[in-house]
Amino acid sequence: MYVSRLRRVLPGTALQRSPGGYRLLADDTDVERFRGHLVRARALVDGDRHADAHEAFEAALRLWRGTPYEDLADDASTTAIRAALVEQRASAQEEGAAALLATGDHAGAVAMLERLVHAEPYRERRWQLLALALYRSGRQADALNAVRRVRTLLAEELGVDPGPELRRIEGRILAQDPALAATGVAAATPGDRPLSSFIGRDADLALLDRLVGMHRLVTVVGPAGSGKTRLAVEWAGRGAVVRLADVADPAHLVSAVAAAVDATGSAGDPYEALVKRLRLHGEPLVLDNCEHLAGEAARLVVDLLDRVPALRVVATSRGPLGVDGEHSLPLGPLAADDAVALLTDRIRAGRPGWVEQDADRRDLRRLADALDRLPLALELAAARVRTFGVRGLIEQLDDRFTVLGRIPHGTMTSHATLQEAVAWSFDLLSGDERDLAVRLWPYEGGFPLEAAASATAGLGALVSLVDQSVVTAETGGSTARYRMLETIRAYCRSVDPDPAATRAAHAVWVRELVARAAGDLQGERSATTMAALRLELPNLRAGLAYDLTHAPVEALRTAARLMWFWIRSGLLDEGNRTLAAALAAAPDAPLGDVVRAKASSASLFYFTGDVTTARRMLSEAFLAVGSEPGHRSLLAEVRYYQALVQLPGGDPAIALTASAEAHAIATETRTTWLIAATAMAWGAALVMAGRIADGRRRLRAAVRLADASGLVWTAALSELMLAQTLVDARDGEALPLLRTSLRRFLTEGDLSNQLAVLHNGALALDAAGDPAGAALLRDVVHFHQARSGIRPAGTYLQSVMPHGWYEGAPPSQPPTLDDAVAVLTAPARAV
């Protein structure tokens, strides 16, 4: 029975009958293929074809699955064969690592050998190779530490000393034996061409070509993984690129460059040989990975440019070399479409026939953005899609360095992992620069200058971080803004010795920012304050999330101070959710904070159209604070909001009493913004009470008072309320008032009140016989109120509204807000 089963699974005549039973012809078994690969790999090593040899060793090792012959009985013969095979495998691992080391991929060899010594720590050959790989990576101290590690291990566990080979290599490392240095590793020979397609950098390639034609020194600068080396290699074509990543000692720089460009000096002077070679051949000099040798590379470049007048130099580095006349070409993230194209190409390389669906394309865009659209990160992610899928990989990126894994052999980078590539940049920073970088990782969506300037290291460290591509500067707007790529943030978080304290410090910065801004949201600087807070929205969210867990009273205070920001940004639901969470998390908060939070939440409910809840919450706030003598200013604000939420359809008596009391307290406390605001609320209350002429006069006075005090927002709202009293009367002043109010709200960045103006503008145009203009404004309002939750038809002095205006689903493709503004402000449209 067993023989018949074997015949079904074995090819041809592999199983033959013999007088003693059956014989298996083993030429095509895994064992024989393994041995064949080893023979071929060792022949390739003898022929100095180390890259091919490494691949042959890897092919041999890929045949292994578990313990050989584990189903056979443990007799003496089987045990001996099994032990021999295991030893051959261990030797193949070591020989494969040695071949990889001989290719010049020192970082890859280090990573492989660390795994091997962990698996079998008593095999000294592995430690010897690890020490050599570390030394050739420029990590002399780590190389010596590797020898110390195995010496301690052998002494403590076996009571023996390292063998002569390990002791010998230790001595050579201590003596910095020149023979230990890798030969020729600095050169990218004409055969060292990338195997993958070049995607997304065509414009940069063309620009580099133009710049080299105009400038004698061009340095391609950018963060780790941005593709600087690949761009330089593509530009150089078949010419040599001097790879400096493995030149650890500045003293070897000239020799490495001379060797890379095949310059030899009969008198033994590599510098003169290099100059002669560059003069004779007239080729550009391409120096890759200069950052760790920036000073020495800069001096060499200056000397060579002086000695060889026709020379052009292209360098790649994390930052400029700092040479007079140098022109930098910043290389940032790929464009969004190019990043998706790169991901798609690399995924198809590993999954032939894969075609992305619409949902995949959206997820690919999300994945690319999450990885900062850095080519190296995208390449690694594409290889992991096979395991996790696109969406699954996005969910794993909190641990991106582990998930993305090792960099494949044959890529242009000299590092073994993305984390190692980032660490290379980080290790070159000074202590102050590292401290600042670690301090900045909690900032979401970037940070302003003052966030970095407040650090002990100061502005000098920030300038250096920008120069070295650790921080990106965005200087196109009115003020500079700074940002860390998510990959760099993740690395800084991973090396932060106290991430909890760093996160807490960021939360304190957010609190202080909001505390300073709160008073300006109703004042002269309201427009610039709104713009600044809008930029910091990701930081506001992060700080509030931290405080909700760690300092709920602070979260309550901050969320309440942001009331007008929530309203004017149209973030009503988010503001109310945050306030509700903070109130629940801080049940024992001081009275003033609870009252202010309830008043803020009530105002948010008002703008969503829930006036019942708004009035109830403000009544609770008034009852809580009304008898407290130490809260006069807060009482004035509560009464002001009480007056506002009676508009429309509320109790005129409450509106009149509340606005008059608030105005009196504001005048008593000389609170400028509140004096103007309560005058406006008082005027609206008079209109509600039927005293329309008095109300209009007080509203006009509120506009004048606000303008005199530079209170643009209060003037705009007063004009809107005044216009509301005129729309139904078809007064010709209504539309000019709405135009002026809209322009002010546009300047202030107040979406809620922009929609309120457009709603009233639609009423005005409809009453004036312009149904097309009214319909356009109505569609825009309907779309935005459905998306944001704002209900502009239910705020302030509501006019009579035609039936069914905002019923049903909003238009799926409405006119834009700009279209609505253009219609309302068109001079030809008049009531």
From TrEMBL:
Domain Bacterial transcriptional activator positions: 29-174
Superkingdom per UniProt: Bacteria
Pfam family, one: HTH_77
Protein's recorded name: Transcriptional regulator
Species in which this protein is naturally found: Streptomonospora alba
